[in-house]
Specification:
The structure holds two protein chains of two kinds.
Chain A (H helix, E strand, L loop, with lengths): L5 E9 L6 H4 L19 H4 L16 E4 L11 H9 L3 E4 L4 H10 L2 E4 L2 H13 L4 E5 L4 E4 L2 E4 L4 H9 L3 H6 L2 H9 L10
Parallel strand pairs in A: 1-2, 2-3, 3-4
Antiparallel strand pairs in A: 1-5, 5-6, 6-7
Chain B lengths: L4 H8 L1 E3 L6 E4 L2 E5 L4 H9 L10 E4 L14 H17 L2 E3 L9 H8 L7 E4 L13 E4 L2 H10 L1 E4 L3 E8 L8 H12 L7 E6 L1 H4 L3 H9 L8 E3 L4 H7 L9 H10 L12 E6 L6 E3 L7 E3 L13 H14 L14 E4 L1 H4 L2 H11 L7 E4 L4 H9 L2 H8 L2 E2 L20 E4 L14 E4 L2 H10 L9
Parallel strand pairs in B: 3-4, 3-6, 4-5, 6-7, 9-10, 9-12, 10-11, 15-16, 15-18, 16-17, 18-19
Antiparallel strand pairs in B: 1-2, 2-8, 13-14
Helix pairs in contact in B: 2-5, 6-8, 13-15, 13-16
Classes of the chains: A alpha/beta, B alpha/beta.
The structure holds iron/sulfur cluster (SF4).
């Protein structure tokens, strides 16, 4: 995973709520067995509409997605995160995220930032008015900055540390292999196995 | 102070707890399918890691498989299924491939084998893993990075979610099903209402549900945004499990039951949030919009965006009506449907098929009607009872087991603008095929709708 400390870039306003992972990447795109090439499937159905915001050249190259509430609900498909990242997004801002999507994002180094709904709306309005506007998402300071405004956001310290160091979760867990083995010795004997 | 069921199960599985870190949670059962696992196995190979406990892991082919006999015609789908076969063989994991008697939708086969038991932690790279919580365990969906993590370590780092009680008072009226109840709950608390919580469904109406009904409820917890849903085990649970291939037997059974009986929320335990629902006033429920929270009683009309005070909900309703091709004020019973789908991990079990068959017996369908059993075992049971004959005589298509039109990954899809009444769990835009329009319903309403071609309850026939 790439480390994330601070990121400055332009933003796309996505004025929709309940952007479920089926919209982010439709199921037909999930047949691939590789981890690459998903940017083509990002919002595939919506992108067919020429007026969809990602088709607006003013937002080309933007790396921050600012969405309405309940972004990433629904299916657990991590392909949604891969598609966003491979398209070029580093950050998604919303007032509420689907739990699994948020988890998947932090495993991959895509930063989900929760801001109050009124701030999200204000941010959307600003980048609609001025698409070239740059926004800074500072994970170190836990702050989003645009213009002379700085808005704090919450993220637990552990996840923040992992993201800033770009650490591999599995490697971290395997440091506790002894604890796992000890736990396994105490498991109830009737618990099922698949053999 | 007492503890909730969720807290008890969670605590039982904490491998390691450290200040300022998520708990490291042991996973008792890991379910795998072809769509969300290939990249996880690749990850293991890249880092030279093994599967820690292949014997706590089971795989099936479900999402991407055709529901008609014969080889997979789509080469990309075929590669994905073949990749699962290769990966499970390489890492020593039990697989139920297409055509196998144990194959089926991942959340149907776990309970069917007796692998899903009270008090367990169960994960799968699929959000409807919440289904298994019906047995009183903590079960939740994970992404592919976490699939790899569980394969490598049999654990997951996680913060314990908050706890919510959904108290369902009173009894469900005749003709009102578990599906209607969960759709009503989601409409009530909203698609984000459960976010950050493990929900425990409680109360008289829940206790009276069969295990299959309970699975339907817990299945859709995720549609309310919840991390997991659970129901305390009781005699209904034990009876369902007794004698299943992987359920404990002999002295181990007694020991297990004694433990399972402790798995209930203590009387003095406190939930972080409590929601009450009155079951006795419910009627058949359907969705009209493009998220599972946009639902209403079948007897009502398509709402108007103006009905919603919240501006976000109002604009979501506007957009949904446009996508769904519906006009505010139209009675839901007048909505014409092209396709009916009975199946999925929500409503693809034997009781669901019986309920649909009861409605279709001696009647004829006027829509394209797909009946897709959730597993090969469900299919076999249905055929032994002659349900397949009822469906075929009514003009419905009787298929092989799989996810099918629930997510439209295989050839079972809607055409743009086509409208379905579906017993599945998601009415998202394009979920059942690009441009398709989905109304979520119970198996009973699905079957009655197939007969009239309009959204219909059996009582209307
Ligand atoms: S039946 Fe539908 S919801 Fe269930 S596992 Fe399959 S695709 Fe997912």
């Amino acid at each position: 995973m790439d480390a994330f400390t601070t990121h400055t870039g332009r933003a796309v306003p996505l004025l929709r709520s309940n952007v479920d992972t089926d919209q982010i990447i439709p199921a037909v795109w999930l047949k691939q067995v590789s981890r690459t090439g998903f940017e083509k499937g990002l919002f595939a159905a919506w992108r067919e509409d020429p007026s969809f915001v990602l088709n607006d050249p003013a937002y080309a190259g933007a790396s921050i997605l600012v969405s309405g509430p309940d972004f990433g609900t629904g299916s657990s498909r991590e392909h949604a995160v891969w598609a966003l990242q491979q398209y070029g997004f580093r950050v998604v801002i919303s007032s509420r995220f689907g739990d699994i999507f948020r988890n998947n994002s932090t495993k991959m180094g895509l930063l989900p930032v929760v801001l109050p709904e009124d701030v999200v709306e204000r941010l959307q309005a600003e980048v609609e008015a001025e698409p070239a506007r740059e926004i800074t998402v500072d994970l170190d300071a836990k702050e989003v900055r645009f213009g002379d405004v700085a808005v704090p956001f919450e993220i637990d310290d552990y996840t923040r540390w992992r993201l800033m160091e770009g650490l591999d979760d599995i490697g971290l867990t395997l440091r506790h292999a002894d604890d796992i083995a000890e736990y396994e010795n105490g498991r109830q004997p009737w618990l099922p196995t698949t053999v | 102070m007492g503890r909730t069921l969720a807290e008890k199960v969670w605590e039982q599985h904490v491998v390691r707890r450290a200040e300022g870190e998520p708990d490291l949670l042991y996973i008792d059962l890991h379910l795998i399918h072809e769509v969300t696992s290939p990249q996880a196995f690749d990850g293991l190979r890249l880092s030279g890691r093994k599967v820690r406990r292949p014997e706590l892991t089971i795989a099936t082919e479900d999402h991407n498989v055709p529901t008609v006999l014969g080889p997979i015609s789509d080469p990309v789908s075929r590669t994905q299924v073949e990749t699962l076969r290769k990966n499970t063989a390489e890492f020593g994991i039990r697989l139920h491939p297409m055509g196998d008697a144990g194959q089926g939708v991942v959340h149907i086969i776990g309970p069917q084998f007796g692998l899903t038991q009270p008090g367990m932690t169960i994960v799968c790279g699929d959000s409807h893993t919440s289904t298994h919580g019906a047995f009183g365990g903590i079960a939740f969906g994970i992404g592919t990075s976490e699939v790899e993590h569980v394969l490598a370590t049999q654990t997951l780092p996680a913060y314990r979610p908050k706890t919510m009680a959904i108290e369902v008072k009173g009894e469900l009226p005749v003709g009102v099903t578990a599906k209607d109840l969960i759709l009503a709950i989601i409409a009530n608390i909203g698609t984000g209402g459960g976010q950050g919580y493990i929900v425990e469904y409680r109360g008289e109406a829940v206790r009276k549900l069969s295990m299959e009904g309970r699975m339907t409820i817990c299945n859709m917890s995720i549609e309310a945004g919840a991390r997991a849903g659970m129901i305390a085990p009781d005699e209904t649970t034990f009876e369902y499990l007794r004698g299943r291939p992987h359920a404990p037997a002999g002295a181990a059974w007694d020991e297990a039951v004694a433990y399972w009986k402790t798995l209930r929320t203590d009387d003095d335990a406190e939930f972080d949030k409590v929601v009450e629902i009155d079951a006795s006033t419910l009627t058949p429920f359907v969705t009209w919009g493009t998220n599972p929270g946009q639902g209403a009683p079948l007897g009502s009309a398509v709402p108007s965006p103006e009905d919603f005070a919240d501006p976000v909900q109002r604009s979501a309703a506007e957009r949904a009506l446009e996508y769904m091709g519906l006009t505010a004020g139209t009675p839901l019973r007048d909505v014409q449907v092209d396709t009916v789908f009975v199946g999925s991990c929500t409503n693809g079990r034997i009781e669901d098929l019986r309920a649909a068959a009861d409605v279709l017996r001696g009647r004829t369908v006027v829509t394209r009607t797909l009946i897709v059993p959730g597993s090969m075992q469900v299919k076999k049971a249905a055929e032994e009872e002659g349900l397949d004959q009822v469906f075929k005589a009514a003009g419905a298509e009787w298929r092989e087991a799989g996810c099918s039109m629930c997510l439209g990954m295989n050839p079972d899809t809607l055409q743009p603008g086509e409208r379905s009444a579906s017993t599945s769990n998601r009415n998202f835009e394009g979920r059942q095929g690009k441009g398709g329009r989905t109304h979520l319903v119970s198996p009973q309403v699905a079957a009655a709708t197939a007969v009239t071609g309009r959204l219909t309850a059996p009582a209307d026939l």
